[in-house]
Design brief:
This protein has 701 residues and is an all-beta fold. The chain contains 2 helices and 53 strands. The strands form 12 sheets. Strands 1, 2, 3, 49, 50, 51, 52 and 53 form an 8-stranded antiparallel sheet that branches. The two termini are 31 Å apart.
Length: 701
């Protein structure tokens, strides 16, 4: 006689035709076979292996975890120094160093003027007689030369001159500095050369500069002397704006803690004071945007708010209140979508749009990022410069303000607004463009040009103690799949967020990882030699660093890598880090191009046992005592007990043979099958039941 134990009670198994008791042991099916009523079979229908595809990274940077069940972060990155903005993942474009001679030490601003890129530079603080100069970028030499002296520092009360802003207006360049009113010919004529005053100047050729501070321009007393003694890049003391026929200047008056806005329609011969706006710091940006009614208007961004200015009526209107952080609003800009983008001291960026609701105008506000779960610690900070590129991208200089953090340039895709499927928050994708290798340095200026030779370039300057370090990237917006002349960095990484593989509670056997990539070195090994271009796959499991283990290099003849030499690994979550490498032949004009990354994992779905067997109720009754009080037969007691097993809302103990005791349940949809007869039944006696019960139990979870 063979028995099974269920919840502490023993039941006798029925015997088959061969006279032996049988019990069928199997596994629990955790996934049903998919059936399609229309369409084609797709590879996700194949349950033999789970495929986790990363065809592109449309979500950009900022995702700490990828949750396959919700779709959150699946198209995003944890971090990257590779470029993901153009489809294939490639090395970032190569940055090249620009030169500039002494007295053009610190790059403050650059604008396109008469087909050339002109920059405004401060001389480094080495003595108390420092100049502000204009220089023109030379594409053939990658240097800043020519131009002329804007302010002669030796004529400014023996103190240094400072540069604040530069714009092209009508047919001239205009600058806003402190110091002398006239550097042309080295003769200072205005107001005794006080270093405490703001000085607008103009030039028709970038070389010869003359005064633009005549009638109505204020006479000094606004700039602290300490502000003139050292190069700083977060002064926000003055801004200029070309607004149609009008040149507008916003200057910070430190004694009264306010910003005075002046305008001139005759290039500085006559100035009018339009409005005064209280502020705890200077003007952060002065842009051509809209008032709340949607009419084009000069807009001033301060740490405390965004204001539209009517220069006709000398009035202001607060469009949006800000938090007062001195890092809020710096170099706010209008994007190609017509929205105003404002960086906050907290690190967030706001997108302000004038909309219409209920027949009236209103301000629509959106936080555009950092998206996902935020940037990794080494890239956090706030905006230091914003630049509207001539396409769908907003270029943002970000971070680098303290030890252990590194300044970055991000490309924010303003052509699309995405929604986080988990939180419901809207954001725009942030893509990596460049990251500095030295911590605690800010990016202080950026510019874009195609001047001189028709080659597009992104220019920027890094904060420096003795001098700015000036760089540029050629073809910054060229798709790597559509250019053969762009140059690339030597290495870069793509860090994917920790992937839960769709089921964080189930261990998975990772089988292999595959890539679809172009421009990999031919062969199946030997990476690292001169000329090799390859992608190294590295990973960490269950929270380990994503550089812990390497599977080797993807080359053109080796685009599949197996984990553990085919043995597989167990992982509840997986961190992946791809290292891109370009070597020296040919020089820089090549990069691996990753189109798709596929991780294949066979989940251990057959991990819970199930048993199906038939109980002989009559045989089981021999070991069951009847109820004396109710005169109930043991067969009926067994039937009642088995009904309780089927309907139990808790897991029950189960043992068969010499296996260890486990906990089971009767699965929904597979109720016990009863094959019963009624014994001793008559006209005045209902009798009792006996027979067989076929039942299936499964291990619970």
């Amino acid at each position: 006689m063979a028995v099974v134990e269920i919840n502490g009670k023993y039941y006798t198994l029925a015997t088959g035709d061969d006279g032996k008791p049988h019990i069928q042991q199997s596994y629990v099916n955790r996934l049903s076979t998919p059936y399609r009523t229309q369409g084609l079979q797709v590879r996700s229908d194949d349950q033999s292996v789970n495929r986790y595809i990363s065809p592109a990274f449309p979500l950009g940077i900022g995702w700490a975890r990828a949750k396959r069940d919700s779709g959150r972060g699946v198209g995003g990155m944890l971090d990257s120094t590779c470029s993901t903005a153009f489809g294939p993942v490639t090395l970032s474009k190569l940055h090249e160093v620009q030169t500039h001679a002494t007295n053009a030490d610190h790059f403050l601003k650059a604008v396109i003027f008469k087909g050339d890129l002109w920059g405004m530079f401060e001389e480094d603080w080495k003595s108390q007689s420092l100049d502000v100069v204009a220089r023109k970028y030379g594409s053939s030499s990658d240097d800043w030369t020519g131009g002329g002296l804007i302010v002669d520092g030796q004529l400014v009360n023996s103190l240094s001159s400072r540069a604040f802003d530069m714009v092209a207006h009508k047919s001239s360049l205009f600058t806003l500095t402190n110091g002398a009113g006239n550097a042309g010919g080295g003769v200072e004529v205005a107001y005794g050369g006080s270093h405490l005053r703001y000085c607008p100047a103009k030039s028709v050729d970038g070389a010869t500069w003359t005064r633009a501070d005549y009638t109505g321009w204020p006479n000094g007393g606004y700039i602290p002397s300490a502000m003139t003694l050292i190069n700083k890049f977060d002064d926000d003391m003055g801004k200029l704006l070309s607004f149609g026929n009008t040149l507008i200047a916003a200057i910070y008056r430190t004694q009264t803690s306010d910003i005075a806005v002046y305008s001139t329609t005759d290039s500085g011969a006559n100035w009018l004071l339009d409005v005064v706006i209280p502020s705890g710091s200077g003007p952060k940006a002065l842009v051509d945007w809209y008032d709340i009614a949607g009419v084009r208007s000069p807009v001033l961004v301060t740490a405390e708010g965004v204001y539209s200015i009517s220069i006709a009526d000398d009035t202001i209107e607060l469009l949006y209140a800000l938090d007062g952080d001195p890092n809020t609003g710096r170099w706010s800009t209008v994007g190609n979508d017509g929205s105003l983008y404002v960086g906050l001291g907290s690190g967030q960026i706001l997108r302000l749009t004038i909309g219409v609701m209920g027949g009236g105008a209103m301000m629509e506000v959106m936080h555009i990022g950092p998206p996902g779960d935020g940037l990794v610690a080494t890239r956090r900070g706030h905006v230091t410069y914003m630049l509207n590129a001539p396409n769908e991208f907003l270029l943002v200089a970000y971070g680098g303000h303290e030890a252990g953090t590194y300044a970055s340039i991000f490309m924010i895709d303003t052509s699309v607004v995405l929604t986080d499927p988990e939180t419901g928050k809207s954001f725009m994708p942030w893509h990596h463009m460049w990251q500095d290798a030295t911590g605690n340095l800010d990016i202080v200026a950026m510019a874009y040009s195609t001047a001189d030779d028709g080659t597009s370039r992104l220019h920027w300057a890094m904060e420096g103690t003795a001098a700015s370090i000036n760089y540029h990237i050629e073809e910054p917006f060229g798709n790597p799949a559509q250019t053969t002349t762009a140059q690339y960095q030597a290495t870069g990484i793509l860090r994917l967020p920790d992937d839960d593989l769709g089921d964080p509670q189930t261990t998975a056997t990772i089988l292999q990882v595959l890539v679809d990539a172009d421009d990999l070195t031919a062969g199946t090994g030997g990476s690292g030699a001169a000329g090799d271009d390859f992608i190294t796959y590295r990973y960490g499991i269950d929270g380990a660093a994503d550089t812990t283990t390497s599977l080797g290099d993807f080359l053109s003849g080796s685009i599949t890598k197996s984990f553990g030499s085919g043995a597989g690994i167990g992982a509840r979550r997986l961190a992946q880090n791809l290292l891109f490498t370009r070597n020296t032949t040919p020089v820089e004009e090549r990069t691996p191009k990753l189109h798709e990354l596929e991780l294949q994992a066979h989940h251990v779905l057959l991990d819970r046992l199930a048993w199906e067997f038939t109980i002989d109720i009559r045989a089981s009754a021999r070991d069951w005592a009847p109820s004396v009080s109710t005169n109930e037969r043991a067969d009926e007691l067994i039937i009642t007990a088995l009904e309780g097993v089927a309907q139990s809302n808790t897991l029950l103990t189960f043992t068969t043979g010499r296996q260890a005791q486990t906990r089971v349940k009767v699965p929904n949809g597979q109720s016990p099958v009863w094959d019963l007869t009624v014994e001793d039944s008559s006209a005045d006696e209902p009798g009792w039941r006996t027979g067989y019960c076929t039942i299936r139990v499964e291990e619970g979870i």
